[in-house]
Amino acid sequence: MNRLHDILRHWRSLSLSVKFGCAFSLLLVLLLLEALAGYGALRVVLEAESEILTSVEIRQRVFEMGGELEKARRMHRDFFLKFSEIGYADAHEQYFLPAKAVTARVVALSEDLRKIVEASNVSFSLRERNKDITLYLTSAQRFGEIFEETVSQVAVLAAPKTGLLEQLGQLGDRLGVLLRGATEAHLLYLEMDHNVQKYLILRQRPYMQTALNIGFKLERALETAPELAPARRAEVRRLVRDYLVVAGRIPDVDVRIRGLLNDFSLQAHAVDPISRDLKALAAIEVERARARISGVSRLASVIILATALLGLGFAMVVAWLIHTTVTRKIVDLTQAAAQLRVDGLEDSPKAPEGDEIGVLAATFKSMVARMQDLVTNLESKVALRTEELAATNDMLEQAVRELDEKNHALEVMTRTDRLTGLSNRRRLEEALRTEVLRARRYGKPFSVILLDIDHFKDVNDLHGHQAGDNVLIAIAGLLSRTARETDIVGRYGGEEFLLVCPETEIQVVAALAERLRLEFTSTDFPLVGRVTSSFGVAEYTQGDEVGSLLERADQALYRAKNKGRNCVEVAGFTAC
Amino acid sequence: MKRAVLALLTVVLAALSLLCSCETAPEPCADKLGCVDLGPDEPLTLGVVQALSGKVAPLGQDQIRGLELALASRGNKVLGRTVKLMTEDTGCNAEGGANAALKLVADPKVLAIFGTTCSGAAASTAEVMSKAGLAMISGNNSAPFLTAIGGHRAPKWQTGYLRTAPNEESAGPAAARFAYEKLGIRKAATINDGDIYTKGLTNGFREEFEQLGGKIVLDATVNKNDANMEPVLTTVINSRAEMVFFPLFQPEGNHVLLQARKMPALAKTVLMSDGSLIENSFIQAVQAAAIGMYFVGPTPPKRTPELEKLEAEYKARYHGSPPTYYFINAFDAAGILFAAIEKAAVKGGNGRLRIGRQALRDALYSTTGYPGLTGSLTCDEFGDCAAQSFNVLRLTDPTSGVEGLKGNVEFTYAPKR
Questions:
Q1: Residue-averaged pLDDT of chain A
Q2: pTM of the predicted structure, to 2 decimals
Q3: Can you name the residues that pair with B296 across neighbouring β-strands?
């Protein structure tokens, strides 16, 4: 108790500045606490948000990757289903080549996915799955290689003209014709061919081996076939041998193709669960991040509520301290001052010692006489001062207005071409950068027209620079009138102008350029007469930077110049 | 006051520098194939690629048993760490091998691959493994195509691939010499199943047999899972071969033998297979049909107390006798791999461990005079670690099983390396 009493006594003896300093320090600590709690919560929420975005991106990539691989597999299946129906060449073009491109996309996607998982702040379990993504990547690469090999094996078997099946068919047809009339040999040939056909349906090697055995018998029967002349016999013998060689090769190719197909099914068996697990893991990641946000939000709410209650307590303590040490003393002093008025400024005011209010009370008495004098002259002095203050205020406002106007003029000058009043090169480049960012983010098209006045040097040389400037001003006016409200028109430099046409496809912009070209051609410029211009038009494509887009427009313009000027060249095709 | 502030700052800075020095970043890996970095509690990870389904599954399982026994002999630890085995099934085919290897090499912690069982799967596994910079060792592959033929790199050779099973480059020649010199055969037929293992053997047989003066009148192929062997045997009859060399696996080998025995025209034809049919399951399946049949297979390891101890451990652990001797090759392969890992490993601070992938390959290739249970093993530049020695066996009594068969040695061929 004594201790508390000592503290209070010490507190009363402190100066006002120290008392206010202490009170506001307490408030500051409170504010800092609240700020720290808020910052911490915000940071966690931001991290969790980043994790959610990454997980969503991962899931999206996995979906895309899985979908593309499925597409490649469908093409692979269709290739085998259709090649015998539509022919090897068409199947190659319709299924194999697109599947190859799709597989390349899967490889690129899985490579991207691997990099995202490696670089991002995902959970340990998802990071651990990076080896599965590597497996996905290598399996996709292998899918492409195996598909290519399968197709080459199918080509050995079924390619038009060179394929074993076609060779076999041709040899069989010729043998059938040559053996007509040789009864025993012909029957053996038919039996051999029957076994080959059985093999081709059932793909069981013993049938082919049986066919080869019958072929062996056929060769022996040829030796004693009286129906065959020697030359024909020799030809048949050669054909039988060729037939047996070709037929004997088919099972080996089939075995290889079966092995490759088995490879496909093993790959599918290996990678399908990966895709499924990754999707599930990414979903768990999102849920985990959401739960984290929710937990942190609850904690932050509790902290903020606690600090608010604490702050309220602090505020009450500060109010009590100020009341007891400042307000009450001022009230006492005020009552003393009122008493002074009642008493005709004769009594001395009472005030506690120890702080500035005490000092104030001490000096109060000595001010009484002077106060009388001040009260007497107060009104005239206040009027004078008010007048002076108003005049000063007017001057200040005027100065501020002038400064604003100059700033505005300066801003306009830095973004405007002084001669034509159009946007200058800096403003155009800013607009281009903005449009590139917008096109990249939202995938909307935009295009540019770069135009250059033809033979402008001749205009300057023949009619003087003032005439040249007038042409530039006239063209600027024409461009501003003809361009749409959303287009940004500017002088890109010298006699070059640039139009940036947001959210506009190249066909529309090419038409606009053509309209401008016709407008120029039909305009009679004072002193100079007809002036034509060449136009280069280009459209933003994904991956473009400002430089690359302008370079394509400039190349188009260059082509327009080379084609005799006064024409519109579109990057990619011509309109001249 | 200023002095106190300065002292406080000094203390804070010293504490910070101490904290920084505790967690120094590891040095960058200087190995050209990359490194496997392991934390203090991380196990060594090995990929195990074997045939664990189908008829050859017992062989694959025996390879894993050989590896387990080798680990057990070291208290289940290498470099004081546990060993994590990531096991994949090849199905005894090339596609299975490639896909199994792809799964393993995707994991950067996998140090090496122990496998495979079948040579066909080994070729594709080794290709993927080699590109990924790993090392691989097998206790069962014996196809010549995988390492060396005639002292030159074989077509399927891959750097980083080694084996302790003998290269069967000499198995075909052993069979051919026996047939030509001892049995007086002059016309022979061969049957393979399209796999590089069986093709390697029939090629070796053909080259030696023709060099000796014989003639190969038929070089036929059957498909795996073919059951009807009558057509190919009819072709054998047509070819008038005196002998058929068919180094096939089960069940195709069984079908060839059983159906040949039903064809009178083949009654006098000599039938010879190789080590893939030197199995109790084969003898039990074909019984008396196998009487008089020949087999060419690797010469079994010499009986030593260590080998007998290992066999006793095998029986105690797995409650049965090993179906073949290849688990011993697997035991030796695992031993060579563990020794190489120990040689290549570099211990870092805080219990960390670094193993360079090229360093591991170098350590494997530098294996010289390793005291294996199959004999002294020295790995050459092609990856062959075992010496070649082959016996030709003749089955006379099916009831005595593989042990009885191995006692009937008719011929031994052991060319110098």
A1: 85
A2: 0.65
A3: B274, B392
